[in-house]
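Subject: two folds for Thursday's group meeting

Dear M.,

Sorry for the delay on this. The cluster queue was jammed most of the week, so I only got both jobs back this morning. I'm pasting them in the order they finished. Each block is the input sequence followed by the predicted structure tokens. Could you check whether the formatting survives your parser before we put anything on slides? The first protein is the one we discussed after the seminar.
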Amino acid sequence: MKKRVITAVIALAIFIPIIIAGGIWIDITASVLAIIGLSEVYIMRKRIIVSLDFVIGAIGVFLLSLPENALRWLPNDFSRFDLAYVFVALLLILMVFTKNSYNFEDAGTTILSMFYIGNGFHYLAAIRNADSGGLSLLLFGMIIVWVTDSGAYLIGRQWGKHKLYPAISPNKTWEGSIGGVIAAVIFALIYMISFKQFQYITPLHQSVPLLIITVIILSIAGQIGDLVESAYKRFYGVKDSGKILPGHGGILDRFDSMLFVLPLIHALGFI
């Protein structure tokens, strides 16, 4: 517990100023986290990261994590996805030159990880650097994720009886899941009303019912993101995605829910 607290304090001391500063600082942070996240997938798979396929994948995940304005030098109608596909093609070509020692399944895992991780961290920076209300919106998403996670754990531990999905995550319960959603709604209402955030997060149109529906959707999405990470960790037979955060695991352990929630915030039209 002491190790977890110390790690959390240090991480927050570094991360909070970056979130507040925004701009290039959050852009750089998002890209670094994306590359670390990809390396954790490789380590879980027991593949070395000092390899050509990892370098290609790392460049791909880096490109996907970049802000749109960083690629203004590209031709018109050529997006970061188009550029990333060049590296998808290189991974597929690598199968030929390695005579399938690097095979289609290896390439598929790397490509899926590139898009899942790179796009998720892209929206960490994109939301923060949105033209108006970016900081408020990012904090809104983080509050939902953190409160859902904490609420589900505390309520599930106290009153949980019915398993949510024991084949993937044996400790999660329906009571905890529902309690986490309710806790997220309560804290989001406090954040939006008591701290007058409706003026910054304008897509909610000052509507409490719309706020509640949005929080429920994002809270459930965050829990799905958590279950997704539990699924691939169970598949690879590991407890944590990495060891970079002592007592907390890896970057993917800390951002598993955010990688689902942040792109969804964009998809719902908030930025």
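Second protein, same layout:
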Amino acid sequence: MKYLFQKNTLLIIVGNFLLAFSVCAFILPFNITVGGSTGISIIFNNLFQLNLSTIILIINIICLIFGYIYVGKQLVIGSLLSSFLYPLFLSMCQRIPGITLLSQDIMLSAIIGGVISGFGVGLTIKAGATIDGLEILSVIINKKTNISISKSMYAIDIMIMLGQLPFYKFDNVFYGIISAYLLTFIINKVLSYGITKAQVFIFTKQYELLKEELIKNDYGVTLFYASSGLKNVEFQVLNTTVFSKELSKIKSIIQRVDNMAFVTIHPVSEVRGRGFTLDK
């Protein structure tokens, strides 16, 4: 438990730093539009001359309350840490000499900024926290509807950036949308790393021995009757569904039992039942 807490805290720290660095180095120098609570505060600032920091604070407090109600206190605790770290890292990064000169091209900056920001936000969410208050809204949507966090974040950010069109050049909004797409794409990759699933079909004459080996290693196994197309010989096909990170272990077991086995591996979008959504 202590190790998990330390690991999550480290992820939150690294995630906040990556986001702050990317914003200072690639987003702010070219006035690329942003989404989230910052984007909303820009709109309200232009319409009503309200203070940016005050609006962001109000939005974040409201989102934290909803996060506590619908997700839990772990999200709120991590997000409170981010609310301290992100402004601190932002201030530190702005003092790095030459940080705004790392890129001279707005398209390149939008791409690099989106990728690095995506890693930062993704690591933070994976650790059970958020950086921007509106990210909590995406976590709640995911919990209630199964719509991925990255998809809802992208949709929300697009609407916020389009709302900035009256105050920014179209080019800045366009590059902002590109950056937001890359950000959400990377977030999705970070969040799905290690938890994507694969279905493995194994065609082998050693199906009994391989079945015992898979069960011994705590893998579920389903058997199908099949026959070879050439000689019409009947045998049983083994099927197991595993997390993608376990594929190397599965391949090793198959290789050890029958190095002539015919194996097909297919990505799976969702798995429900024992070992996945239910305890084994």
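Two things I noticed about the second structure. The mean pLDDT is 83. The two ends are 22 Å apart (CA to CA).

Cheers,
T.
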